[in-house]
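Problem statement: downstream parser choked on a complex file, so we are re-checking the raw output for the zinc ion run. The parser issue turned out to be on our end (a line-ending mismatch), but while we're here, posting the original submission so the record is complete.
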Amino acid sequence: MAKSPQEEHPQKAFGWAARDSAGILSPFNFSRRNTGPKDVSIKIMYCGVCHSDIHFVRNEWGFSEYPMVPGHEIVGIVIEVGSEVKKMKVGDKAAIGCMVGGCDKCDDCTKGLESYCRDTILTYNFIYHDGTRTYGGYSDWIVAEEHYVVKFPDTLPMDSGAPLLCAGITVYSPLKYYGLDEPGKHLGVVGLGGLGHLAVKFAKAFGVKVTVISTSPRKEKEAIESLGADAFLVSRDLGQMKAANGTFDGIIDTVSAQHPLQPLLDLLKNHGKLVMVGAPEKPLELPIFPLLVGRKLVAGSATGGMQETQEMIDFAAEHNITADVEVIPMNYINTAMERLLKGDVKYRFVIDVANTMAA
Ligand SMILES: NC(=O)c1ccc[n+]([C@@H]2O[C@H](COP(=O)([O-])OP(=O)(O)OC[C@H]3O[C@@H](n4cnc5c(N)ncnc54)[C@H](O)[C@@H]3O)[C@@H](O)[C@H]2O)c1
Ligand SMILES: [Zn+2]
Ligand SMILES: [Zn+2]
């Protein structure tokens, strides 16, 4: 069998990897393929820490392979481009999100819905076309096909802009697709974490009325005063919940763990939509009656396609939408993941890769 480009010309790379399902990350030397004709190579400046990185390093979804270098909220500077690359040049700011490849010919790929391709190649823990493993953004540099790289707007800060690449597009795309971006609609956001706080910001920019739904009143002041939410509902307060029943056009649910759906379905108006974007490891219980009598819809959404990711990031630049971030050094990652599991971050950790990833 012919050797892959990576086997022939492997380029040294350095990152932090999990070695097993304990999910503890430590320094890791590996290699990446050479920059091919259609490829863009990027020096990574910042990488966000998504809750999916935790699900993955701990094998909570059951298909993790090790060593694994996580990270799919990647922003950096182009260091090399292949001869056929058109939209980028050395020195440009560029970004990579959840995927680095697909079949490029199925119905979804040809419609710009690459995140739904059955052969999608995620940014890490997947096998690339040439048989090599994909490694993510907790690393010094990355190479990807131009089609899967977005132009990062000059006016956006690279650190607080990084989380747009997963958290941002994951909430932007369903708001658009399910018609929850129309001014005057009433949206609920469940789980005020990385995804949730960006859902509030995008929905407000669309002119939607936003209510944050949270288990405790702890985040109320901040949700309203700094994130711009219109209202706040404490899901443990049954009186408050009952009074709000039947008042939401849609709810975006970003919760990462098991939780009851009945109270959320009750909050919806008839014909309302509950859109799941959180990815709990175990199935949730779905009550059917509210779906029948109120013709309510429960749906899901996976990140977003490449064209829409570019549209989202340009929209974010135009409307000054960035994540609220805590920038951390690479060697803080294990502590950061522990804190993220406790909800102890406002609202996204971002690794300062360029300054702290010493080889
Ligand atoms: N659909 C997609 O394409 C996609 C993309 C990115 C992330 N995700 C998933 O979305 C989820 C959220 O990701 P994130 O990075 O925003 O995580 P996060 O940890 O920043 O936010 C999760 C929020 O859920 C809350 N929460 C946790 N357990 C809860 C419970 N039992 N009841 C109520 N609230 C609870 C937390 O307090 C936190 O506010 C994860 O499961 C992640 O894997 C999905
Ligand atoms: Zn993610
Ligand atoms: Zn495809």
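For whoever reads this later: DSSP finds 13 helices and 17 strands in the chain.
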